[in-house]
Amino acid sequence: MQLKRCLLIGFVLNVFCLNNLSGEFLRPKYDLRKNESLLESLKKDPLSFVELFAKADPEKINVVLGLLDVLAVEASSALDLLHSHVNDRRIRLETAGRNVVEANSNVVVAQSALEQADSDHTSALNDQTNAVNEEQSAQSAKAIADQNYAEQSPSLLEEQRVIQNVIQILGSLIGVTCPYGYTNGLCEITSGQIETNTIMSGGYEAINLINAFGSSSKMFHGVDSSTNEGRCWGSADVEFIFTFTEVTPVNMLKFNQQGSDRNVTPRRFQIQYKSDGNWVDIPCTSATGIAGSGQGCSNGVEPNGAGSGRDTWHCSNVNDQWANDLTPGVREFDFSAETCVVTDQMRILLTANSYGYSSMGRVYQMTFFHKKSGSASCG
User: Fold this and answer.
1) Nearest to 360 by CA among 197, 212, 244
2) Total domains in the fold of the chain
3) What is the pTM of this model?
4) Both 346 and 206 in a single domain?
5) Structural domain contains residue 209
6) Is residue 340 part of a domain?
7) pLDDT in tens for each of the 379 residues of the chain?
8) Are residues 195 and 338 in the same domain?
């Protein structure tokens, strides 16, 4: 744009040199040789500038007008560019201002979060201190409780044993009565808890064996391949411990079984009761072990009845185990003529199934009774 201004000045001088020989343009009023630009002259006195062209060639004037138009357009463009720069800088300033406001707000929030974190940290330290103190206090209390138990439990256990013995002795003198009530001369004993050492097959828990005699909706069954064939096959017994809700006399056991299953049906077992902290066998009876069958005690023969047995059968000549058969339904083991015990715990050990299969079960209930007409005294 500066070059075009210089060309315009030179062109104007050339026009006046050729068309105005009178030298009027050299008068001070029209002097263009001073130290100022043509545009500055136009700004000061545009009418004087126009008078210089009064006698000039019209074509030359048109050329000057064209150059002036170009300068005007360029000046307008330059002005627009400056205005754009102003707007851009204004927008940047406004953005920077907003960023400052946001940064100040973030500082306030961060400061608040820092103060809250300091408060939370202080609280956490207090909680830690309190927890350590409570742990130490609990540890001291436990040590005292352990010491009290060690010092006092032996005498309390002995007291419990003596009381239990007195209950049994007094009960034998007056004829012990079952606390659960009698129906047709039988008292069904309620078990509050049952424990077992066997892994149960899904849905066939040991809990199905208590407090539901006469129901066959659920049963107990051990998991196959659980190596609970019983000791007579050189494996583990299936153990059930029944804990009663009351101390009670016991002289009969009943259970339901699916029967006819030659693999898992219990064929040999022991009945025991808890006395002075020990498990005591209830002797089997040959006449009434299985109702109407006369096969109450094991004869030492393998449960398949063939007599030859398998090589792993280990219960030959064992006479203290009860025997069962494969008959479905209720199995009744009545020892009321020989034995009556007073206790709150009984145990059943299943010692053999039929063929040494890897599990034992398909039993629906195992329920203890007191038979009022039993001839054996309870004690």
Assistant:
1) 197
2) 2
3) 0.55
4) yes
5) yes
6) yes
7) 555 555 555 555 555 554 444 444 444 444 444 445 666 666 677 777 677 667 677 887 787 788 778 878 888 888 888 888 999 999 999 998 899 999 899 999 989 999 999 999 999 999 999 999 999 999 999 999 988 988 888 888 778 767 766 665 565 555 568 888 899 999 999 999 999 998 888 888 898 898 777 766 788 998 888 888 888 888 889 999 999 998 999 999 999 888 877 788 898 999 999 988 899 999 887 644 444 344 578 877 777 654 444 567 788 766 678 988 888 888 889 999 889 999 999 999 999 988 888 888 889 889 999 998 888 888 6
8) yes
- Residues 173-182: contacts with CB under 8 Å, at least 24 apart: 175/378, 176/249, 176/340, 176/342, 176/370, 176/378, 176/379, 177/249, 178/248, 178/249, 178/370, 178/372, 179/246, 179/247, 179/248, 180/246, 180/248, 182/370, 182/372
| 270 close to 276: Cβ distance less than 8 angstroms | no
From the list 265, 268, 270, 269, the residue with the least C-alpha distance to 357 is: 265
| C-alpha dihedral (217, 219, 224, 230), degrees to nearest 10 | -160
User: What residues make up the domain containing 228?
Assistant: 186-371
Lookup: tokens for 121 = 């940290």
Domain for residue 157, yes or no? no
Q: In this structure, are 122 and 196 located in the same domain? A: no
Is the residue at 1 inside a domain? Answer: yes
Q: CA nearest 279: which of 288, 287, 271?
A: 271
Domain CATH number, residue 199? 2.60.120.260
